[in-house]
Specification:
Largest sheet: 5 strands, parallel
Helix content: 40-55%
Order of helices and strands: EHEHEHEHE
Oligomer: single chain
Low-confidence stretches: none
Length: 103
Amino acid sequence: MTSTHLQILLHAPDAEGLQRARMNAVNAQKADPRCEVRIIANAGAVAAALDTPHAQADSCTLLCPNTLAHLQRTCRAPLQVLDGPAVLALAQLQQQGWIYIRS
């Protein structure tokens, strides 16, 4: 029997949600190293992600370009910017089979 690995999509819409998403990402990957996790940050979570680095979770965190533009801020590595609005990325990843969890 072939087992598939989990693909978890954590949606962080605010600073508190980002903090929960980061901890959930770390815990999931510690429990199952094959697990893929992406954190999609929009709205209030974007400034929090830029202002408070997280060594373990930043590499899997993607920021909404609309929120970045609204804040007049730029991304810092290893954070990444989505190709389009967070709402579309959330829907497209779910369509591809990623499991959505709002943080």
